[in-house]
Design goal:
By secondary structure, the chain is α/β, with parallel strands linked by helices. The chain folds into two domains: 202 residues, 3-Layer(aba) Sandwich (Rossmann fold); 195 residues, 3-Layer(aba) Sandwich (Rossmann fold). Helix content is 41%, strand content 14%. The protein contains 15 helices and 13 strands. The strands form two sheets. The chain has an eight-stranded mixed β-sheet with strand order 3-2-1-4-5-6-7-8, sandwiched between helices. It has a five-stranded parallel β-sheet with strand order 11-10-9-12-13. The structure holds ligand SAJ. It comes from Corynebacterium kefirresidentii. Keywords: NAD, Oxidoreductase. Its EC number is 1.1.1.336.
């Protein structure tokens, strides 16, 4: 049973639902391959910006591509879905209080798409999701459209697959075309059709499997990283207790040909690694012991850093503290789930009478969560350091690395990133 035998033909039109950090670049890459793409988002301002070729968020190198596919008419944004040969769902999948997935965005997308589905249409879920979600999405589609069937032999067949996004924010232009893709359909025909779609713009290998394994593959990749960062974070706490420099320790251990320890930090941020492992935990509560513990270790790191800063503040009798960085990782402006931001917020709350001098070269103004505090100011790094006896290094942004080490002489430094080790 192949695409040719089933006479599914070429994919000429694609509808991408959700124009965020993943959906929009995906839509633009597909449009750049010559396919006509309608990108759909509920945010009207966002849609308007895109149709003017303007970036709704920062991603290096992406603006030129966006402008070009909008100008040549291959990409059009809209608030309404349109008929298409294939649909990609790239909407958020937050978790509920019990860490189970919140399906509301997927459900809303499926209900939107359902009325415009034609027999033979393909629907791909890209959003990171727990095992079984693609099947649930198919059930929602079929409940709305009982005339369609996921039986590949049916003339009214609906093809459904999962193809998780795997690009690293900040490197999307390289990784969107180059990364290998894991593709898992509800049946082999759905998998093949999704492979045809992704081959239009991706030069990486197409790794074919079933939907549940594809869902779990994505969660596994991010959990692998989370567990390994937790190992590094735990080592940093053990090393403090034993009076060992963790950066030297890791460097020495990494000389072993089969050891490659990641970097400790103030905790794990961003919208992926701090979230996705919980989907495994909620799918296998009893069994996912290590994955749960790793999450707890990483989530506990900001409180440990606060305790270290408190020791330094008390030792110095400091009335001013320099905080270097609030982004969730180096050289980006993204503050989502940032442990550095949460540490600064906790300091502001804990010490209303002390000045918290924040240096963050990637933003022009403090986020609302910090402007609420009178004692927090955004300043440049040299000013923050020279005015404070205690310096908390929370993000290792490149501009910080070029500061002379001598500016830290006599300072009590809590360096969570090993920037000057
Ligand atoms: N971090 C450390 N120590 C390290 C590495 C990272 O503390 O050695 C921290 C970072 O500072 C940051 C967090 O971990 O707070 C996550 O950063 P990251 O660079 O590891 O990952 P993300 O969240 O930007 O992107 C990840 C990527 N997944 C993997 O590398 C397995 C990316 O490929 C995924 O597409 C993305 O998650 C996603 O959307 O799922």
């Amino acid at each position: 049973m192949s695409i040719e035998e089933k006479q599914l033909g070429p994919i000429n039109k694609v509808c991408v639902v959700g124009l965020g950090y993943i959906g929009l670049p995906t839509a633009a890459f597909i449009a750049d391959s010559g396919i006509s793409v309608v990108g759909v988002d509920i945010n009207e301002r966002h849609v308007e910006k895109i149709n003017n070729g303007e970036m709704p968020f920062f991603e290096p190198g992406f603006e030129a591509l966006l402008k070009s596919v909008v100008a040549d008419g291959h990409l059009k944004a809209d608030t309404e879905v349109a008929e298409a040969d294939a649909f990609i769902v790239a909407v958020p999948t937050p978790f509920n209080d019990d860490y189970s997935v919140n399906m509301s965005y997927i459900e809303a997308a499926a209900k939107n798409i359902a009325p415009v589905l034609r027999p033979g249409a393909l629907v791909v879920l890209e959003s990171t999701s727990p095992p079984g979600t693609t099947e649930k999405m198919a059930e929602i589609l079929l409940a709305e459209r009982p005339d369609l069937s996921t039986d590949p032999e049916s003339a009214n067949r609906l093809l459904v697959a999962h193809c998780p996004e795997r690009v690293l924010p900040g490197k999307i232009m390289e990784e969107m075309a180059a990364n290998d893709r894991v593709i898992g359909g509800l049946n082999p025909l759905s998998t093949d059709r999704a492979k045809q779609l992704y081959s239009s713009f991706c030069n990486g290998e197409m790794l074919l499997t079933n939907a549940t394994t594809a869902e779990m593959a994505k969660l596994t990749e991010n959990s692998f990283r989370d567990v390994n960062i937790a190992f590094a974070n735990e080592l940093s706490i053990i090393s403090d207790k034993l009076g060992i420099d963790v950066w030297e320790l890791i460097e020495l251990a990494n000389h072993h040909p089969r050891v490659n320890i990641l970097n400790p930090g103030p905790g794990v941020g961003g919208h992926c690694i701090a979230v996705d492992p919980w989907f495994i935990v909620s799918s296998a509560q009893e069994e996912a012991k290590l994955i749960r513990t790793a999450r707890e270790v990483n989530d506990g790191k900001p409180a440990y850093v606060i305790a270290k800063i408190t020791e330094a503040v008390e030792a110095e009798g400091a009335d001013s503290i320099a905080a270097l960085g609030i982004a969730f990782k180096p050289d980006i402006d993204d503050l989502r789930e940032s442990p550095a931001l949460s540490i600064v917020q906790q300091m502001a709350e804990k010490w209303p009478e002390k000045n918290i001098l924040v240096a963050e070269p990637n933003v022009n103004e403090l986020p609302e969560s910090l402007t609420a505090y009178q004692n927090v100011q955004l300043v440049d790094a040299s000013h923050a350091i020279s005015s404070s006896p205690v310096v908390a290094v929370l993000v290792d942004h490149t501009p910080f690395k070029s500061l002379e080490k001598s500016v830290l002489e006599g300072k009590n430094v809590v360096d969570t990133r090993g920037m000057w080790s």
